[in-house]
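question for whoever is on the cluster today: can someone run the full assembly for these? two chains, 660 residues total. i dont have access anymore since they changed the login thing
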Amino acid sequence: MAGIDHAILLPPASVVKPDVITLSRESNGAILWECKSGANVEIDQLNRYRTFLGQATAKDIQRVTGIQFPHPDAAYIEVAYCFLEEAIQRVIGFFEREAGMPVISLGQTTRLVAGEFRDVELSKVFRAGFATPPVQQVPWLVVADAQTTDGEFALYLLPTLVTLIVKQTERASISDLLSQTFLDWQCVSLETRGALKDKATRLLKNVCEAEFKEHARYCKPGERHHDPTIEIVSELMRLDASAQTRGLQKLEEQVKSAAERLAEGRAFLPAQPETEQWSLRFPPPDD
Amino acid sequence: MAEIFDQHLHNVTVHFERAEEYPAGQGPLKTYIIEAHDLNGNAPSLGRVNDVLGNIQERFLFQVEPTDDPTLAILKKEDVRYFLDFLNPRFWVVHTTANIKPSEEYLDELVRGSWNLDYAWLPTQVLEHLRKGRRFLGFNVDFDQTLFLSEGAPDELQEQAAVFKSRYWGTRGEKLYEFLSQKTALSSVLCLSAVKYSLSDLPCSAYIQNELNAQGRIKATGNSIALHLGAVTHLVNLYSEMIETLEKELGLAFIHGEEGDELHGYPLTLRFSQPVPDFLGLVKEILSCRDPVRFWGVASHEERDFVRAEVVDLHSASRLRLDFTPNHVVVYLFRGSCGNSVARLLRIIQEHLDPTVYFELERPTVFDQCKEA
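^ ran it for u. tokens below:
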């Protein structure tokens, strides 16, 4: 794999952003994979890819991803589309008539259904097809991108905040938290990294003033720290063993409720303490 | 230190099974392996070890006394004295002649309360490997499926949950253990939790009897501290190789290089020989924050027979991801996380679900050597 979500600029003012770029050193070529979850071909996007293929060189890919082709001057670049099996009927005619790009169908079997790869062996493998493993058996390595919902994003990010509470770390930058959460952090494009950082900053600021209020504090960038940071103020790990276990279990509930709240876009409502109301008021009048 | 222990061994003759009954300082010599890690999962530097010792003094009220040897310290609490050897800064060796009850109570308090310390967790296959080629003097087996039953699990499940605990000390232990292992009906419950063996140096009339348990504790009696320390070094080297292998093989990260982004490491599948009787019970207990697993976790995807969870190991503050199905658990060990988390999970699955589960790594490693031996 050569990169995830890298934006490649096309002069004068256009851009393509394949989901994944793969490099084959043996065949000295790169494939830009566009993975679609819907059943529509975005014509504008397809045209940009066509223009891109007419203009781009291996050096454009090298510059963006940092990979090195064995022979850049002779390298080839192609674009492949992936669709879910149920969408194939709607798009295949178009690709057969107009596009000429390889199209992969993803169902119980993964199969090349239109076009050919430049690499003949690769075409043979995909044309023959192979069983797609069930989603549960696919390793979950790249878990989030800029489009991931706030609720789901929180479920990945907040456990890393919990590691800081357990370690009783004083402070960590949001970039550190992200790099410890997302295995692919070093590989995503700068643009995606920026979007993820903005999302993380917004969510952490929110939960630090809500569910995590007694554990962590959001600190704006300042003179000493150019990045926003999270300061750990939790006393949880100083409690005795059973109180600590209860506190950690409560923290799991708090992560879940924060994720649900963020998914629904709700504001935080602190739980009302249960108190004896009458003791704070005048006694009821005698009848 | 060696002289003190040599003298102790010569002065006391003990039966391991009665270790709690001996007066203070008269029980067997006990040696523990403690795994210590730094923030990034690596071995702590000497300076960091000293910070940890300072923390032990401050938070756990141990007295810490340095010695002439910069990698040896004496820890004291009440009337328990420990010799802490951190020549290997990642795998510490702790010796004590104090009685077992207070010495383990204080040590437990320390290990449980420190995110950067843990015990060793030896799979049943490795315990078996360690007793081979030595005179086998007995074993403990300990298996109890009730840990992974949900609260309020149906009576039928509770009645079916297997419990198999037994202790055999004596000669011909090897024959008895082999007999039990060959019984198909027992292979799914036969989980070694301790082995007892002796080592001797006949020309010197030297011998040592060791009882090694699954958490890396060795009780020793005999007349040769050299033989005991040799066995400890062998265990530390083997365990260190195991944990470093897990970290090197499994530590997941995409690394950016000239050839693009290469995935280093891979998720490890721990396969059960039979479907789990109470799937949700297993998931809940593993993520409960409680002993013995000590994992904190939150589910990110839940289906009927599938749960994916984002996990923190409370012993090491490591990040993991776990995929649960009734037939297996997939462990994603993040780069820089502690391999001991995986060793502990496997050991607990062996003790409470399926003793036949073992590490299936992609390349031949120390784990295959232990299994084949």
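summary bc i know u wont read the tokens: The CA atoms of residues 134 and 298 of chain B lie 45 Å apart. The first helix of chain B runs from residue 2 to 11.
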